[in-house]
Automatic annotation (TrEMBL):
It is a multi-pass membrane protein. This is histidine kinase. The keyword NADP does not apply. It comes from Altererythrobacter litoralis. GO terms for molecular function: ATP binding. Residues 214-267 form the HAMP domain. It is found in: Cell inner membrane.
Length: 473
């Protein structure tokens, strides 16, 4: 099957790219409209020039013809001669004809006829009919017979010249006056001028807009990176420099104030957590010493176990609270060696923990945190099942640490809720089996700290699969 190309992938995703694209489309549309308007204006000027030339020739010929005919008629009358027959063609190239000049198959041009009628009416001429058409000079019988007219059209390409043939039927019934007028040539270089104008506008506007947008988007990109990486490190980075337009400066200033306040709150939280941890663990340690004086061994064991549970729960809570402010820096670590070291710890304790395929993959990791996440998932597998099977799977964009067990699994509708703090399952996953409901929450948070995710799924053959997915980078 042929994969369909998503049109959204062809569009720029950045603010700068999108604004530049909109500008380019707007300029193209604007220049296209401008080009059409300029072309239509040029065609109108061309038509007006041709119609005015035809009207001028007709009006001039009409006046001269009337004067000449009157003089000739008077002279011939004095001499007793009969009236002279009208010539077929006068010196101005105006043909006198008894029929319309429209040849079979030719189309009339109403817009030209209306324009000529308007011009003639302004000069007091109202013909019975006006007929205008276009034809090639080489197809006009009169032009073919008249070398003088051919020379006016051009000595070489006169046959390909387009001419307007205009005929007016005189109101006095004397027939048709036919004018042949070459259409003025179209203006040369108009398209090139429009393209050059578009190129100049593109260059000027693109340069100016690019400089302005870059001034706006560069601090915006820095602010985006700062917000994205805010929780990655414990060390305080210098505040962002306030630059760019006023709106951007105010945004950066507001972010700097917010960041300063958040860091102060986190510092206060760390101090408070340290105090809580110290104040709670000290009496717990004292209780652990005092229960040694309890004579009943069974009661003493139960009390010791309760203290251990409280201590472990307190450690989990403090660890979860400190994850967002971990002071451990990422180091490039062999993922297979890290997982193998954790598995080795359980093997030394005699637990059924097996390591399968583990290709060597070097990733930037916080080793201590990731070990904690793997231990939590293995503890869950052993707590609710009889064994744990671990393998590392390398994909195209991520590497996965898979931990499978043979326990009862988790209902599908409870899968997401089980990763929330203090969430525990039903009969098979309750406090009686141990845990405070923080193991999966810690593992998920640690995976997200590495830019990955924790994915839970029930295995078809039974049991649960917990998978830490880490991006390859």
């Amino acid at each position: 099957m042929t994969a369909r190309l998503d049109p959204r992938r062809l569009l720029p995703s950045s603010l700068l790219g999108q604004v530049m694209l909109v500008l380019a489309l707007g300029l193209l549309v604007g220049q296209a409209i401008s080009g059409v308007l300029l072309y239509r204006a040029a065609e109108q000027r061309r038509d007006v020039t041709a119609i005015n030339e035809i009207a001028l020739r007709l009006i001039t010929e009409d006046k001269r013809s009337a004067e000449r005919e009157a003089m000739r008629a008077a002279m011939r009358a004095e001499r007793g001669l009969p009236p002279r027959r009208m010539a077929r063609m006068n010196r101005d190239g105006i043909e006198r004809s008894g029929v319309s000049p429209l040849l079979p198959g030719e189309q009339r041009l109403p817009r030209y006829e209306e324009a000529l009628a308007e011009v003639l009416a302004g000069q007091g001429l109202t013909p019975l009919d006006i007929v205008i058409t276009t034809r090639l000079a080489g197809q006009d019988p009169l032009v073919v017979e008249r070398p003088r007219m051919q020379r006016r059209l051009g000595p070489r390409d006169w046959r390909e010249r387009q001419i307007l043939v205009a005929g007016i039927e005189r109101a006095d019934g004397s027939g048709w006056a036919v004018v042949r007028q070459p259409l003025p040539p179209r203006a040369r270089g108009m398209i090139g001028s429009i393209l050059l104008q578009t190129l100049v506008i593109f260059t000027v506007l693109f340069t100016l807009l690019f400089l302005v947008l870059r001034r706006m988007t560069r601090p915006l990109a820095e602010l985006t990176d700062r917000v994205s990486n805010f929780s990655n490190g414990r060390e305080r980075a210098p505040l962002l420099q306030e630059r760019g337009p006023d709106d951007m400066r105010r945004l950066i200033a507001a972010h700097n104030a917010m960041e300063t306040r958040i860091l102060a709150l986190l510092d206060e939280k760390d101090v408070m957590l340290g105090a809580i941890g110290h104040d709670l663990k000290t009496p717990l340690a004292a209780l652990r010493v005092r229960i040694e004086s309890v004579p009943d061994e069974t009661q003493r064991t139960r009390m010791a176990q309760s203290i251990e549970d409280i201590t472990r729960t307190l450690d989990d809570i403090l660890e979860l609270a400190r994850l967002g402010r971990s002071g451990e820096a990422s180091e490039r670590t062999d993922l297979s060696a890290l997982v193998a070291s954790v598995v080795g710890e359980y093997e030394d304790l005699g637990e059924r923990v097996e390591l399968g395929e583990a290709p060597r993959i070097a990733l930037p990791l916080r080793a201590t945190l990731l070990r904690r996440a793997i231990r939590n998932l293995i503890d869950n597998a052993l707590r609710y099942g009889s064994a744990a099977w671990i393998e590392i799977v390398q994909g195209t964009a991520s590497a996965s640490i898979r931990i499978d067990d043979d326990g009862p699994g988790i209902p599908e509708d409870r899968m997401a809720a089980m990763m929330e703090p203090f969430a525990r399952g039903e009969a098979s996953r309750n406090r009686a089996t141990g845990g405070a409901g923080l193991g999966l929450t810690l593992a998920r948070t640690i995976a997200e700290q590495h830019g990955g995710a924790l994915v839970l799924a029930n295995r078809p053959e039974g049991g649960l699969r917990a998978e830490i997915r880490l991006p390859l980078r």
